[in-house]
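Quick illustration, no need to memorize.
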Amino acid sequence: MNNYPIDISKAISNNAYMVFQKFPELPFFIKTLQLPAITTGTTRISFPQHHAWNIPSVQSDVDDITIMWYLDENLLTYFKMISWLRECRSVDDVTTAMTDATVTITNNAKQPLVNIRLFDCWVSNVGTLDFDTYNADPMTPFFTLKTHGFSWEYLDKSLDIYNGLS
């Protein structure tokens, strides 16, 4: 029995794209994305005789997510992010500016592999848009999302050895 993966292909890397529930007509083709770190705090319980015990807290913090994406030719995705940022700053009820998002990661054959769902996202930063007429590479601006958590789902259920625990 092998204790290491046997299905690794280094020839082609995985890809990903993101769709926001708020504007599903605009997919964001991801250049870089890091899934957020989740940090659980501690709760301190004091006992008589000056003893204390730390246990995991019921609350967790989810770090910000910075996403770099391939900009579309008409700059639609960039200006949509700017509009959303303005909306987040000016609404009376911030929950109306939040939306869920789905990141679909494809395998090395570009077939959808896993969906990662981000809950209650809002944009907190939109990076610069750098024009360089000497560079033929696609423009890749970035934005930063805040989210309240995430879950995942394998599209091929036989790959999910933990039965969807997220």
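The mean pLDDT is 83.
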